[in-house]
Write a structure and sequence with these properties.
This protein is an all-alpha fold. The chain folds into 2 domains: 2-40; 59-116. It has helices at residues 6-30, 37-40, 59-83, 85-90, 94-116. Helix 3 runs antiparallel to helix 5. It is flat, with a radius of gyration of 28 Å. It starts with 5 loop residues before the first helix and ends in a 7-residue tail after the last helix.
């Protein structure tokens, strides 16, 4: 039984040895590098890091992003149901009614978001 775990032990020892070797070589060879203010400054995609870091986004942007995630998750829940639809219908209409209720709640949420103006970029 213990001999079955011998390959796992070797794998762990090799991984730890590799990590220790890479870290120690980084410390040894990293000290010999020449430092200057340009190398020590933050790298921002080729632009000098002067001024504000990022522009301010409207709250509407985040609201639309959250609504997208919510309605995207709807598809994630509906896909397995659609794949197993024939098997579920064979057992009775319970699966169809439950998914219709789920879709109805989501349609209600979409209409609510539209009425509240969550998807209106102008206001």
């Amino acid at each position: 039984m213990p001999q079955d775990y011998l390959p796992v032990l070797f794998q762990v020892l090799i991984a730890m040895g590799f990590a220790a070797t890479v870290l120690s070589s980084s410390i040894i060879f990293g000290r010999s590098g020449k430092r200057n203010p340009i190398k020590d400054s933050a790298y921002e995609c080729g632009m000098l890091p002067i001024g504000d870091g990022a522009p301010r986004f409207s709250v509407k942007f985040y609201l639309v992003a959250m609504l997208f995630v919510i309605f995207d998750i709807e598809v994630v829940f509906m896909y397995p149901w659609a794949v197993q639809f024939r098997d579920l219908i064979a057992d009775g209409p319970v699966a169809l009614v439950s998914m219709a209720g789920f879709a109805g709640i989501l349609v209600f949420a979409y209409v609510y978001a539209l009425k509240k103006g969550a998807l209106n970029w102008k206001s």
